Automatic annotation (TrEMBL):
The chain crosses the membrane at residues 7-25. SUPFAM superfamilies: Sigma3 and sigma4 domains of RNA polymerase sigma factors. Keywords: Membrane, Transmembrane, Transmembrane helix. It comes from Rhamnusium bicolor. This is Transposase Helix-turn-helix domain-containing protein. It comes from the Eukaryota.
């Protein structure tokens, strides 16, 4: 290949690269035509969505708190308390037709409580699947950010003084690894994991000398 042929080959390669870049740029700009702005099924949210039908009926008409607890793993009072904590962070601009904080929190709790997919949540609440994904992601992050300060606070100087100086538990024991809980039978798996941990902490291997005094007397040992 002589010099002229090499230059021609380089030019063709450059032109091909430019053509690919132009095609990719144009393809990114082409938006997929949406068939619906809001699906007809989701337009019936206030008439058919579980938030406005099933959940409201549990609290007002049938007053079935047992089913409400199974639905959210919370009592109504617990839900209201949690809503007071996280509600301000879940509030969106109402002018855009956004869902209310309690609506968002309820969908997230139901998703966490039941063995169901986001698609099932979307159908039941008459909300788009993409919207459900965004809501659950945002809400779980808010729950973590706020509850972490309450459940896992950084100990103060006074709190450190109350920590018992006792015997550490040995980790080289027969405690089985809890492992990762999958979507199938997650509730059963959680119960088994809880029972394994409970049995370990009351066994001779997992218990520490002062824990029974603390449990029975209700005070820390000297």
């Amino acid at each position: 290949m002589n010099r002229v042929q090499k230059i021609a080959a380089y030019c063709e390669l450059i032109l091909a690269s430019v053509a690919v870049c132009v095609i990719n740029y144009r393809s990114r700009r082409i938006r997929r035509n949406r068939r619906y702005k809001v699906r007809p099924m989701n337009r019936q949210r206030r008439n058919e969505g579980q938030y406005y039908t099933l959940v409201k009926k549990m609290l007002t008409v049938e007053v079935d708190y047992e089913q409400y607890f199974k639905y959210t793993r919370m009592t109504p009072n617990m839900f209201r308390y949690l809503l007071e904590l996280v509600g301000p962070k879940l509030q969106k601009d109402k002018r855009g037709g956004s869902l209310s904080p309690d609506h968002r929190l309820l969908m997230t709790l139901h998703y966490l409580a039941e063995e169901c997919s986001m698609q099932e949540i979307a159908r039941g609440f008459r909300v788009g699947k993409t919207t459900i994904h965004v809501i659950i992601t945002e809400t779980t992050q808010v729950l973590w950010d706020i509850l972490m300060r309450i459940v896992l606070p950084i100990p103060s100087s006074e709190a450190w003084k109350d920590i018992v100086k006792g015997t550490w538990r040995e980790v080289s024991c027969n405690l089985r690894s809890v492992g990762r809980l999958g979507a199938n039978n997650a509730t059963r798996g959680a119960i088994e994991a809880r029972n394994n941990l409970a049995n370990y902490f009351v066994s001779n291997e997992g218990s520490v000398p002062w824990q029974w005094d603390y449990i029975l007397k209700g005070s820390l040992p000297e």
